[in-house]
Amino acid sequence: MFNLNHIDETRFEEFCFDLLKHLDFVNISWRKGTGLAASPSDQGRDIEAELIRRDVDGSVRNEKWFVECKHYTKGVPPDKIQGALAWANSKRPDVLLIIASNFLSNSTKNYLDDYKKENKPPYHLKIWELKDIEHVTTGLQDLRAKYELPTEIPYLNILNKYHITYIASLQINSAEFLIEIMDDLHATHRDRAFDMLYHDVVRPKYRQPTSGKEILAELKIDEDDYPAFREKILKSAERQSPGYIQQIVSFGLAYLFQFANTTAIPEFIKRNEDVAEEFEARSRNPEFSDERRARFMKMAALSRKMASEMPQRTAQYHETYQYICENMIKKLLSEKMYPPKD
């Protein structure tokens, strides 16, 4: 079970510090100074950090974050966050993040809702509770191990057995056998599964843009569909290493599983909802032009649309993933090729 009750308050702040480093924050400063309980007052925030952001117009800026770490085995009460709110109002970071090792009490959540309505703070207020911490640390196995947190990989139980066997073994397949199997696959499943693999193998050429408004697909000279992939594989495989087919198929499976991983749905939805909130907050900046505010609102709507469509989209990819494993990978495992004897 994922929880942080086994570490003390100072250790929790250290965990938050390390977490920010793993999430690519920079210029991270732990306000306690020494990391000891006897260190000086943190002046209303535990950690200061910066996050590099790239705006929709391509410009890059550093966001200032204040991070307040609250380590409670029960709900964090309202009076324990007032110092952080006061400091953020005074110094105006871009984001005030409150990380709770368990959760905020209902009274604290109500207090924050009323606070945002009445004060309209000039910064974005974010809350990470235990469930959020579990999501953002998914895949950060070194961090979890350091703080004695569960390190099992959540998607192991949904990996298809033929996928596991294929990538764990030394499987030598012929290009002809691969294409024979892929020719028999349902085209919708085949193209949904391997569109990125087609592109990676074919490596189409692109022309130089003339207007600067073209999308990438309009600049493409060569086709990178299944027929082009098929032709390239059959022509080039004999010049490749014996494990070439396994390498490209494993890449295709890995890419497919990213979209088929049902355990990642909550994290994806939460991340896109956070992004939408951030864009909406930026759109309210009175210094921005109407056009720029409209762009932020458009990006917010896109993020919410992606979040709402994620469960159905993942279900489609998961169906395709299982189909490919059962109708392609299983067959590839049946081919027994041995290097010829001298």
From TrEMBL:
<dbReference type="GO" id="GO:0016787">
    <property type="term" value="F:hydrolase activity"/>
</dbReference>
<protein>
    <submittedName>
        <fullName>Restriction endonuclease</fullName>
        <ecNumber>3.1.21.-</ecNumber>
    </submittedName>
</protein>
<keyword id="KW-0378">Hydrolase</keyword>
<dbReference type="GO" id="GO:0004519">
    <property type="term" value="F:endonuclease activity"/>
</dbReference>
<dbReference type="Pfam" id="PF04471">
    <property type="entry name" value="Mrr_cat"/>
</dbReference>
<feature type="domain" description="Restriction endonuclease type IV Mrr">
    <location>
        <begin position="5"/>
        <end position="114"/>
    </location>
</feature>
<keyword id="KW-0540">Nuclease</keyword>
<dbReference type="InterPro" id="IPR007560">
    <property type="entry name" value="Restrct_endonuc_IV_Mrr"/>
</dbReference>
<dbReference type="InterPro" id="IPR011335">
    <property type="entry name" value="Restrct_endonuc-II-like"/>
</dbReference>
<dbReference type="InterPro" id="IPR011856">
    <property type="entry name" value="tRNA_endonuc-like_dom_sf"/>
</dbReference>
<keyword id="KW-0255">Endonuclease</keyword>
